[in-house]
Predict the 3D structure of the following.
Amino acid sequence: MMRPLIALVALCAPAPAATLTLRLLDPHGLPVAGAAVEIRGRDRTARLETDEAGAATVQAELPVEVRASAAGFEMAVRKIEAPPQGDVVLRLTPAAVHTTLDVVVRDETAGMGPSVGGALEIDRSGARTVFDAVEKLVPGAFVTRRGVMGYGIATNGTGTVSIRGVGEQPNTGVLVVVDGRPDFQGLMGHPLPDFYSLSDVESVTVTQGPASVLYGSNAMGGVIEVRPSHPREGVTTRLSTAFGSYLTGQHRLAHGAKFPRGFYSLAGGLAHTRGERDSAAFRSQDGSATLGYDISRVWRASLEGRYGHFHVEDPGPLQVPLSNSYARVGRGGFTLNLDNATARNWGYMRVFSSYGHHIISDGFRSVDNTTGARLHQFVSLGPRLVLDGGSDVVLYGGRARNYGEHRIGSAAGFTRLEWTPRSPLKFNTGVRYDHNTVHGAVTVPEFGATCRLSEKLAAGLAIARGFRNPTIRELYLFPAPNPLLRPEYVWNYQATFQFVPTPRFRALLSAYYADLSNLIVTTGRFPNLKLDNSGRALNRGWEGTLRWRPLRRLGFDSGYAYLRSTNLAPYIPRHKVNYALQLDAGRMYVHFGGSTIGRRWADAARRSQLAGYTTATLKLSVPFKRRYTASAMVDNLFNRRYEVMPGYPMPGVNGLVGFNLQF
């Protein structure tokens, strides 16, 4: 009886503590003020910001890993295993890559927005795709699904992500950005969720609320930003494979190398399932390759290419089952990147092109492409003032059977300013002018202010306007094309409070008010359907997130989102709860988490509702000798019966068993 008790006490016993004073300097030996510092220990992560002297002090239990980053500099990483003699000095070097997303994803209310997290956190949560990770870890986001794997497209397609009630069907109200460039299907104007696997993803970040100043159309409800993984040092290879219920499998292989002046990376993935019903099979393949080279200490060039293909079957609703209903999609593209950075200036240029072909069993055939360029540059005008600006040009469109060929172009310029007049206060403002060849010009502004009321409490306010241009499908294709459609708009007002009473406890509360106008809706009955700008909605709600680490190796995360809308779209819940419990038992990592979803409308006419449900996922990860990890996951642990889409019952209890190998 005493031995287990002694072992438990030893497990939870605190490690030796030390007071660390960190000093961040630039290449000229000058202090870097306002830099973000993360102290990663065994049980917690502390986040600090350097003062005017470039210093930050923290009490930490050793050993720890220190990560320091500042706009325009490479991230500095150092491990500290013993109490240092004096200050710890980290010299930051100018960054030529990956500064883009570090700056772009900053929340307009003092960085207090939800971040889904890095590859390790996503993997431990049991997420199978990027969209799956977004729904599991962001309470204000909801993703429609219809089976164990495969979102699908066309009539019964799912994978629609809504953020605070904004998303639309298909998903044209939330923008997906991959490595700094918008990603969407040229004709339909929406992303294809089955292409966002986790084969080469380093991190995923979600911005809630309009981000149109930075990204223009489709960022009306928010942005999902995906950062591909690149090798950090040496030569690395990662292999993961898993098999489970319904002949489901997920397999990923990534290889890369980092040299003094360059890097390369290769990644590929396979996914497949027989499906939980007849005619519900899914299979996909994807691959990517990236090559980068440091032209100088200031400039770096890189080229990224990727291609993927998937086949997804639609079994249809239980009431009207389908057979031989499928879709086959292939998509590829490339991005040419040129990044630059000095101690006070940094930015990038992206030239990109993507293409795709769709084959659907109902006879629809299409090819589409998107080509564009994006320029974004930052200038530090002083330790308290950062100015950035840029422009982008995009030409998108394609050809569909029986609908001819259509193309639309847009060009825009934007600028933003971040000002910190004194330590507790920070202001940011921005504006974008966007001109579309069909819809004309639109100007959208944004404004934000934050204040650290004390060491434990911070508050922020944000106002932003977002917009979405009608897609080619809505203008010229189906179900009732209307070339006179106008853009949709939203004014969003948000207040955020962050409370951190101890390093082990963090709470975040946000309230918002969104006024949506000119919404494109379908009126009438088939065959007399019509699309027009007669829709409007007022979305009001609040969200709360909680992160608590009561013990060194025990953590609890939870989030709740409430939405009240005057025009709530189908499938979107009024209430959503996320929860997760993590236990690091040394030789095993345990994750237990899930969601509770409230009732939703089952149709646009609001004649019926879908019942609420609760899901639970249990994942065990057992590492062996640092390079090998075995894992087992059980989804829908309590075997609940529920539907996310009407007529598509979700699978009962199901599981995956696999391993990860790194060398």
Q: What stands out?
A: The longest strand covers residues 528-551. Confidence is low (pLDDT under 50) at residues 1-15, 95-114. Residues 103-662 form a domain with the Maltoporin; Chain A fold (CATH 2.40.170.20).
